[in-house]
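Researcher: Sequence recovery benchmark, item below. Answer with residues only.
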């Protein structure tokens, strides 16, 4: 943090909460706002009631509306500002506008409203959330049990015991690119979350060496993870992963 710091943005990777309790008082003293990137973390506790929390409702998220997201503001003023920003900066609601001949735009804004059809999908998913959460937790635990004690496989723990609803299941493995190709050939839908931002052309002007990030980025592998899967699916995937790793060291 520097005198120029205005906000901190904890990323709740994989669904795991980030506890800023030890520095909460210092953040408040400095007037630094907390904006939680909870795109992968619908379900777990919020860091602090003073945080602004941002969710994603994309197709792979714990709660999906197929597209879109939501912001949980920390104050009434912030809520009002966000409502204006999502409707092109217009100060009045649609109900108010249709009763008059004009309206007022008092600042920047964008077209950020969630379509009704997506909201309808989200409401149905919300009613099923406890079931989906239980399936995700069971699937993650099945992976963890199947891979426990396996040489060359390190599970990126998201701490499901603390109420976290996991978004994905990520492992670190040697010779990742070859293992990735092998599993794809076997019909296992593995992926990588994510390549490092600081190596992307869009961020070239801010690039600096980040050796730990770069090392980990070459090891991580996301295993298939979806509430439609069963624990048996997870165990089968783990078996194929171990076969691929054994082949790489043979």
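Model:
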């Amino acid at each position: 943090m520097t005198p120029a710091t205005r906000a901190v943005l904890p990323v709740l990777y994989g669904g795991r909460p980030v506890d800023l309790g030890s520095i909460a008082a210092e953040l408040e003293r400095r007037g630094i706002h907390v904006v939680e990137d909870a795109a992968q973390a619908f379900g777990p506790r919020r860091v602090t009631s003073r945080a602004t929390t941002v969710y994603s409702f994309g197709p792979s998220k714990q709660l999906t509306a197929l597209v879109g997201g939501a912001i949980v503001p920390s104050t009434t003023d912030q809520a009002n500002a966000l409502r204006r920003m999502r409707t092109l900066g217009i100060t009045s609601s649609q109900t108010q506008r249709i009763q008059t001949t004009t309206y007022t735009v008092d600042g920047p804004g964008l077209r950020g409203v969630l379509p009704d059809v997506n909201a309808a999908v989200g409401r149905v998913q919300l009613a099923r959330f406890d079931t989906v959460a239980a399936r995700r937790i069971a699937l993650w635990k099945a992976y963890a049990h199947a891979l426990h004690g396996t040489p060359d496989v390190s599970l990126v723990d998201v701490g499901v015991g603390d109420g976290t609803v996991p978004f994905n299941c990520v492992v670190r493995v040697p010779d990742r690119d070859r293992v990735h190709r092998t599993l794809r050939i076997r019909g296992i839908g593995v992926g990588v979350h994510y390549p490092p931002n600081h190596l992307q052309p869009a961020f070239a002007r801010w690039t600096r060496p980040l050796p730990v990030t770069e090392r980990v980025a070459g090891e991580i592998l996301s295993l298939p993870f979806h509430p439609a899967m069963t624990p048996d699916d997870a165990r089968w995937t783990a078996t194929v992963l171990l076969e691929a790793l054994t082949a790489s060291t043979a």
